[in-house]
Specification:
By secondary structure, the chain is mainly alpha-helical. It has two domains: about 120 residues, Ankyrin repeat-containing domain (Serine Threonine Protein Phosphatase 5, Tetratricopeptide repeat, Alpha Horseshoe), CATH 1.25.40; about 90 residues, Ankyrin repeat-containing domain (Serine Threonine Protein Phosphatase 5, Tetratricopeptide repeat, Alpha Horseshoe). The protein is elongated.
Length: about 230
């Protein structure tokens, strides 16, 4: 493959992956929320009392809506922390994946909801889980978006630093390739490097994070990853 074709291939992957969270993560729409019944309805409203009542009356804790979302996914999208606690206490699966293979932790990571990330981990969520249609992790999703507080929380929880998704990128690579080179992505890259993320893992074309940073004239980012 020539240099021009490599560049076009990389550009295509960047365009695809830059839209990944928006394309893949689908919160319940207003019409879906209005149509919900049972635990899904209570989770969407954050009604802890109703959640507990339904569970005590024998409701199954992990029903699915048309997109494969459990009540826990719905509560996570809405940042209903107490509802998440009540659902897990009643048998809800904190590690369940919806149809696009997102779990509560990755949903919260994309939302930059560090409180939900930490809560899900506290309740048994797996920060090492492979999630999304990109075979990624919550850490990669957070690094992509420059959510440095979420990145730090996931690092502290033992998330895999050097997992390579099916685009051929690690969390550090995504912070460079899909970031804007600004303060948030710099802080993300700095946290990853400080935790021991490998700076030399290249993409499928053999281009390293440093080389990508230099090509984009992200001088501060290049200083972090060199």
């Amino acid at each position: 493959m020539g240099v021009r074709n490599i560049g076009l291939a990389v550009a295509g992957l960047v365009i695809l992956a830059s839209h990944a969270p928006a394309l893949a993560q689908t919160p319940p729409s207003a019409s879906e929320r209005n149509a919900y019944q049972g635990l899904h309805s209570a989770a969407a409203r954050g009604d802890v009392s109703e959640i507990r009542t339904q569970l005590a009356n024998g409701a199954g804790p992990n029903p699915r809506d048309g997109a494969g979302r459990t009540p826990l996914h719905v509560a996570a999208f809405a940042s209903h922390y107490d509802a998440v606690r009540a659902l897990v206490a009643g048998g809800g699966d904190i590690n369940a994946l919806e149809n696009d293979r997102y779990d509560v932790i990755t949903i919260a990571a994309v939302k930059n909801d560090v409180r939900m990330v930490k809560l899900a981990i506290e309740l048994g969520g797996n920060p090492k889980a492979i999630t999304s249609r990109y075979d990624g992790t919550a850490l990669i999703a957070a690094a992509h978006l420059g959510h440095e507080a979420v990145v730090q929380a996931l690092i502290e929880a033992g998330a895999p630093l050097d997992h390579v998704n099916n685009l051929g990128w690690t969390a550090l690579m995504e912070a460079v390739v899909l970031g804007d080179g600004g303060a948030r992505h710099q802080a993300t890259a700095r946290a990853l490097v400080a935790a021991g993320a490998k700076k030399t893992i290249a993409d499928r074309n053999g281009v390293t994070p440093l080389q990508h940073a230099l090509r984009r004239h992200y001088d501060a980012m290049a200083a972090i990853v060199k």
